[in-house]
């Protein structure tokens, strides 16, 4: 009897131990399951956060405006083409925009539907630098200018909208037939000289108008630019200013600065190499500003290759 009781006790003990083990296993399994569930949730959150970050990075460049887009807005309605700066052809394509700045300069020239040069703009006018740029002895980038219809007339020059001395090229997109006196000694020359003396200009714009759609000879020019913080507007007709002044009863008194103070023509202080000729570099080194016009005492000793009455314009 006593043995039976002992067996019964052992059996119950064994059953109790097995039952506790199952409960513990179930508890551990539940905890592991919960832990896995939590990990899965955290991973999903991290993936979501990563997706949001990638989307933000992709969207940013779409908002930004690039210089190319700005140029596209500026050139809207025009075809951008390239023309060699020394191209002597007088032909212009209609509705195009051309860079007429020498070297890295960005001077933009626009034509209308008739191929007339109607507008030139530049954020900054950078003066010619004969120390670093290939400038001829006459102060030009090229030996000649484009033959735009009209320049064959004796009273008209191949007039630059932006002169060589201001960094402009010599193709048809920077040349118009301009009255000779106006170009050499009148408002055009004064405007260019003012920019040179100021060391350059900003916010430059030239508007060129014509009497009709058939001609390439302008009737008037309007230049707007800023020098030394001051906005300047120069507007003048494409006519001989001397004749206009005479018709108005005005006298043209020559400036004492342009007349000779050296009557004997002694160029020894300027002609540093002693060859009897004065180059633009020599004249500049001696303190003379460009251009040297035909009424200047140095002019006879200089090389005016295009015979326009000016050297170094």
Provide structural commentary.
The model is unreliable at 26-66 and 252-261 (pLDDT under 50). This protein is 32% helix and 19% strand. It is α+β, with helices and mostly antiparallel strands. It has six helices and eleven strands. The protein has helices at residues 2-63, 67-74, 180-185, 187-198, 241-247, 280-285; strands spanning 79-81, 96-99, 107-111, 117-125, 156-160, 175-179, 201-209, 220-227, 230-237, 292-293, 310-311. The protein is elongated and about 150 Å long. The protein starts with a helix and ends with a strand. The chain folds into three domains: 1-64; 70-244, Extracellular Endonuclease, Chain A (3-Layer(aba) Sandwich); 258-313, no CATH class. It has a seven-stranded mixed sheet, covered by helices on one side. The chain has a two-stranded antiparallel sheet with strand order 5-6.
Strand coverage percent: 15-25%
Indicate the percent of residues in helices.
Answer: 25-40%
Mean residue pLDDT: 80
Shape: elongated
The beta-strand count equals 11
Gap from first CA to last CA: 137 Å
Main attributes of the structure:
313 residues, alpha+beta, Extracellular Endonuclease, Chain A, 11 strands
Question: How are the SSEs ordered, and which strands pair?
Answer:
Elements: H1 2-63, H2 67-74, E1 79-81, E2 96-99, E3 107-111, E4 117-125, E5 156-160, E6 175-179, H3 180-185, H4 187-198, E7 201-209, E8 220-227, E9 230-237, H5 241-247, H6 280-285, E10 292-293, E11 310-311
Parallel strand pairs: 1-2
Antiparallel strand pairs: 2-3, 3-4, 4-7, 5-6, 7-8, 8-9, 10-11
């Amino acid at each position: 009897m006593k043995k039976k009781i002992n067996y019964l006790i052992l059996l119950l003990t064994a059953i109790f131990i097995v039952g506790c083990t199952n409960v513990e296993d179930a508890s551990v399994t539940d905890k592991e399951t919960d832990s896995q569930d939590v990990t899965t949730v955290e991973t999903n959150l991290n993936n979501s956060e990563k997706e949001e970050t990638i989307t933000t990075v992709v969207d940013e460049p779409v908002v930004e405006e690039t210089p190319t887009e700005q140029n596209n807005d500026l050139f809207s309605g025009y075809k951008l083409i390239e023309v060699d700066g020394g191209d002597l052809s007088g032909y212009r394509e209609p509705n195009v925009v051309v860079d007429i700045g020498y070297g890295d300069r960005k001077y933009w020239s626009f034509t209308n539907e008739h191929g007339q040069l109607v507008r030139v703009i530049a954020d900054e006018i950078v003066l010619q630098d004969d120390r670093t740029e290939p400038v001829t002895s006459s102060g030009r980038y090229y030996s000649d200018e484009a033959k735009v219809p009209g320049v064959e007339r004796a009273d008209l020059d191949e007039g630059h909208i932006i002169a060589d001395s201001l960094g402009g090229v010599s193709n048809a997109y920077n040349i118009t037939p301009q009255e000779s006196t106006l170009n050499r000694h009148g408002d055009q020359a004064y405007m260019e000289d003012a920019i040179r003396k100021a060391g350059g200009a900003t916010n430059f714009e030239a508007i060129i108008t014509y009497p009709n759609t058939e001609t390439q000879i302008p009737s008037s020019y309007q230049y707007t630019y800023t020098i030394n913080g001051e906005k300047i507007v120069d507007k003048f007709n494409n006519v001989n200013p001397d004749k206009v002044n005479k018709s108005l009863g005005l006298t043209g008194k020559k400036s004492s600065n342009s007349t000779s103070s050296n009557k004997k023509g002694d160029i020894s202080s300027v002609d540093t190499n002693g060859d009897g000729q004065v180059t633009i570099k020599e004249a500049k080194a001696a303190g003379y500003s460009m251009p040297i016009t035909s009424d200047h005492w140095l002019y006879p000793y200089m090389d005016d290759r295009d015979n326009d009455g000016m050297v170094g314009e």
